[in-house]
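sorry for the late reply, my laptop died twice this morning and i had to redo everyting from scratch. anyway the thing you sent over, i finally got around to it. pasting the sequence first so we're on the same page, its 703 residues, then the predicted structure underneath. double check i copied it right bc i was rushing
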Amino acid sequence: MTAFGGVEMGALAARTRALAVLRVRSRALAVALLPAAAAVILLVGGSTGHLVGGGWDVLRWVVSVLALLVLLAAAGVALVVARAEPAMTPTVTVPEESAPELYQMVRDLADRLDVPAPSAIALTPDCDSWLEDRTHPLHGPPPVDRDDDGLPGLGDPARRRSAVAAPVLVIGSPFLWWMRVGELRAVLAPVVAGTGPSAHPDIAAARRFIRGLDAAVAVASAGRRDPLSRAACAGLGWVSRLLLRSCRRHATEMERGVAAAAAERAQAVDYGLRIVAQEQVGLAYAGWDRLLTRVALPAWRMGRWPSRLDVGVVAALTELSRRDRLAEGFASRLGERPACDLLEEPGVVDEAVSLLAARLFHGGPAETRPDWSPVGWEDYPEEVVDRSWRTDAARLHRVLDTLGVRRTGAGTAPGTDGPTLARVLDHLTTPDPDPAPTLAPPTVTDADADPGTHPASGTAPADTHAPHADHATPHPAYADHDAPADDSDDLAGPVARRGAPDASGDGHAPHGDHAAPHPSYGDHAPYGDHAPHGDHATPPPPRADHHGTPADDEDDDDLAGTTARGAALAAGLSAQLAREEARERPVGAGLPSSPPGPGAGTGPDAALWDDRALPLLPLQPPRTGREILTAHITAMVCCAAMDTVGAAPGLDWLDGPALLLDGARTADLAPSVLSLVETGDPGPLRAWMTELGIRPEKPVRLV
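ok and here's the structure:
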């Protein structure tokens, strides 16, 4: 688009659509006043002697009562729309005293773009950046810059001062650690440029109206017990949804115009560098996604949260650049200043963002406690990998005990009754003379669920910090974007499922001023500066079993191709996991949200969103019974390797837990384990163990 009279055409289109939204509001007000106007006409007609008679008197009373009811209902709806708290993204606020250089860079960028500077800066644990309006009274309005001017050319030619507070700039924390200063400035240019249209009164008023309607729908969706409240909420929801549907097309086009105007204004700022920086956006997302799903998630399940996730994404991307050609020119970037240097205490900020990521993606508590403690990367193999393997192996043997499986396997010495890998192999490979009784999940008594030592095995049970849910829906903001080009199989899986941000143009921020409605809102999608998460974000759909036990029909389909004993063992493991999680639940509901680090103001803004909806951004779908069984057998094999041939737990930045032998990563044993699980054939797994010298008949140490 081209500028017209010093104003971007996109900004003019956005204002036109904003006026259309405001006209919908005006029409709604006119409809609410229509019965009152009719009542006034009838009353005046009666007082002047024109509309007299019994029929007119009855009509006057009916219309007057109707007008009063409509006015009361309209006033109630208007009050809820004005007072309901809009959704707000949970972020880590970065005060100016903890990042003066970052604030100065953003202000310089705003001056260069000739737009108001953002009122504050916050970080989000995701690869995205956007503007967010936090001027609602319940949010605590950000400070208003008295020197900010309105959008030039729209209104007074003398560029009147704007009374609209600038939105908050939300930056994806992986960008700060992975990108260089120049790249970050180039990526933020079209985002910061969106503060110009945001300051225009018409656009700001239209956005407030849309956000209010969205919040009103959330209020109406809240459960009410008494019939009167239910009826009132039903009416509020119907009116709010009707108005949202009337505004939706205009609001969508308004945001497109704002994004187009911001992109056009930002073209003159580091345009060539922005093209290169967009490549780093996709690369950062690939490493961040893999780090969360493969590295952070196993730690979260063990009750530990990695305290340096952003440092980890740099290590993951460094490893990715070593394996692939995706990061060509990486070495030349190392000499440039990283954007995290703009923070006074990057370690404190990284810790706060890491804790917030655990809450958003896993639903963990808001602060450290005995069963929820931080873990450094140097301690990750011992504290997470080794512990998780031995915990799964202990759970596997406890379930075998409940199934009545003998404790001595083939080839074990007489009198040996410790937990061995041979016991597992023999149970899954020995033909079952009567498989029917083993198809049902085992009945577990209170003694089986007791967290104490199992009487049959004499070993301590699995850690009571049971793994939490394998998570379901990927971040909806990336659903329509294409994954970055990749010639390696290392990025298959989570990256292919979740996708990566669009790196093809300026409109890279799918939130805030550059967004289409966020899909998590369903029929009452927000627009513009609306936050995609918060108190009114739609929680994930309920699952049959939070720990990976799918519905009965799905579980039957998943285990249909396995042996009868394998299906029974998988069902027992799934039930045991569900019981362990039930003892742990709720993980983070109702906990206070205090800053996790010594830096004041760096804690997550969790007081403004609903802990009951955690996790807001679940990472993966629940594990199937086949996957649970495969993971437990793999853990038992790794324990046997560590205890018999001196293997060690390790951390692969892209694949997560790894088994190391003589300092090198062992070959993937997943195909061998799958052969045992699906067909009962132990041949490939025994050959793999023989090659490494692993002795399955030797007892292993469990947690």
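The chain has 21 helices and eleven strands.
thats about all i looked at so far, will dig more tmrw
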